[in-house]
Amino acid sequence: MAKLTDIPGIRIGHADNQVAATGCTVILCPEGATVGVDVRGGAPGTRETDLLNPVNYVDKVHGILLAGGSAFGLDAAAGVMQYLEEQGSGFDVGVTKVPIVVGAVLFDLNCGDYQIRPDKCMGYEACQAAGSQELAEGSVGAGTGATVGKIFGAEHAMKGGIGAVCLGTGSLMVGAIVAVNCLGDVVNPINGSIVAGAFQTNPFAFLNCEEGLLAQQEKPSNRFAGNTTIGAVITNAVMTKGQATKVASMAHNGYARTIRPAHTLFDGDTIFALGTGQVAVDINIVGVLAARAVEQAVLRAVTQAKSLAGVTCCGDI
């Protein structure tokens, strides 16, 4: 089975602080790649996404940042830019090359030490790690401080993480890497059973975030408990910016199949779609595989996670 890092033209690296429970993940495409984005959540934290609008000029991106730290974590993009400039990668403006780095962040400040966040040094460190080792999953990189199932409060939450999957048909490869930090539960799309989410102990039981949200209609509470699921679809397909944007849109079906509820006002759900341009194919096929890859990556993110910073993972239940 192909790995996400087998897709030519990209490298992926993590950097994190396990004690502070935060980190970042970078996807490098030094030669440039076509990228689109679809932001569905109501509380996003993003960088340079306006550039990805198909009507705008720049048509190649050199790096994608996924990070914890909420808006503070966007600082890590400066380290990605420094690394790429040193490698001679970027948009040529004559006097230098300006790396085009887009990004999105998730809220993990209430897990671990909120005073430590991804910064320029951590972004640079993630670039140095890119391609140098097997791509780890779970409680690493942007998924280090991720948690899921927070409608009933942080004390009932479970560990989230980051997951990666690569699918294909013929010469086409479509993969996804997703950091799962949702307000709701992660469910098995086949039967709807909860895989990870809000839970109680003694006796153990999942609380069901979607039903809990509906039950709170008469007594609304502050549900901003720190959310957002962010990720990227990566493919070797030939895509225009418009097509990449459509693939990112279709990829959100993977969130809808596995996260309940998804795309709430309190999530900043974002997906980038990156095409390295080696295989010409029907874009609808790319979109279908993208949704499947995101679906599987979400499940891997929580099943590969480990307990951290006092938050229990589903594997320990």
TrEMBL record:
Entry-linked Gene3D superfamilies: L-amino peptidase D-ALA esterase/amidase
CDD domains: nylC_like
Keyword Hydrolase: yes
GO MF: aminopeptidase activity
Pfam families: Peptidase_S58
EC numbers, comma separated: 3.4.11.-
InterPro entries hit by this protein: ArgJ-like_dom_sf, Peptidase_S58_DmpA
Alphabetized UniProt keyword annotations: Aminopeptidase, Hydrolase, Protease
Keyword Chloroplast appears in the UniProt entry: no
Family the UniProt entry places it in: Belongs to the peptidase S58 family.
UniProt protein name: Aminopeptidase
